[in-house]
Amino acid sequence: MMDFWRTSGFHILERNAEGRLAVTDEYCRAFWRRPEVAPVEESCDAERALHAAMFENPTAEPDPARLDAFADKDAADNFRVLSGFLRDLKTAGTLEDFYLGLFRSGRVAIPPLFIDQMAHALTRNVLDGVANPLQARAGELFFRSQRTTIEDGAIMLADEDTVEMYSQTGGFGDLGRLLMEGQATMREVTLDVLTEDNADLYWDRSDRFDTVLDITFPRPGLDALCRAMEVWIGHFLGMETRIHPVQSISDEKWRWHIGLDSTATAILNTLYQGEDVSEDQMSRLLSLFRLEIKDQALVLDDVAGKPVYLALAMDETDRVQMKPQNLLVNLPLKRSA
Q1: How confident is the model over 60-85, as pLDDT tens digits?
Q2: Sign of torsion over alpha carbons 282, 138, 198, 171
């Protein structure tokens, strides 16, 4: 069994009997190490003292008087937001219960950064034991933004932060500095396109997010994304689905669709309503999928027997920001399901 994503937090959480991730103090403590709340040289004594106290008891409710004593009011606000989030997380008991409850409530009042960090650990749990490295790489879409390159019809996704890092370091002089700082070799920082032949290189590099996923129809990377979505749904909702890529939607009985990101949602809504979609909008549509739910008794009566169509798209900056929560809260399920 291959290990991967050591930075996800999965390894400092505890799996309960249902396979869900029970919240631990060590996991919560990791949030207090974040630069948004960690003391800096200019931090006052009150901030340093309270940070030390929160580090010891990471889900405690800080004394308002101690927060009011902060010289930096923005730092005090950061403490309030983080401590409130961690208390709610601890109360929920598991990451899965908190995550699903958050999006089912329709009131998402926590920073996107926290959502992505939870999704990182959750995806690691969902994919635990996976043997296909392409599936693990596809799972990165659930918590990290991707930058799209389309060349000769091939659709390539690279980690946005990694692409940004390379764009800022410029030529080989800066790359040499990067190599020295990371103590990496030239091969290790190369953005390799994963294929079935070289995919095993992913395991040792998984925390560097420096490989490229090819999601061109019908290549293995796109199939890997389908499998990752299936196990994500199965883990949270306990139901079996089958997802496969399609090249178009030509279904007169089209009843339900889910956009996997904001751009895809807007495009699918427009198409469903029978309105015209511009050529520019259509060019941003990267992948279409057909999802089928095995147990049709769980499905709304007017959708039963019909597929659910999914879409993935890039925005105007060629960015893909997948929202895996849409697969959990937007399926056409009866309330009892």
Answers
A1: 999 999 999 999 999 999 999 999 99
A2: positive
Give me 68's structure tokens.
């009011």
Rounded-to-integer distance, Cα 228 and Cα 213, Å: 13
Q: What share of the chain is helix, strand, coil (3-state, %, to 5)?
A: 50, 15, 35
User: CA 37 to CA 32: how far, in whole Å?
Assistant: 6
pTM over the 0.90 mark: yes
In which residue are the tokens 């659709």 written?
A: 155
Query: What are the backbone dihedrals phi and psi of residue 333, each rounded to the nearest 5 degrees, phi first?
Result: -105, 145
Q: What is the separation of C-alpha 298 from the centre of its chain, rounded to a whole number of angstroms?
A: 26
Distance CA 18, CA 31 (A): 25
Phi and psi at 335, nearest 5°, equal -60, -35
Helix (H, G, I), strand (E, B) or coil at 170: coil
Helix (H, G, I), strand (E, B) or coil at 106: coil
Cβ atoms of 15 and 36 within 8 Å: the answer is: no
212 torsion bin: left (phi>0), alpha (psi -120 to 50), beta (else)? beta
Alpha-carbon distance 285 to 103, whole Å?
25
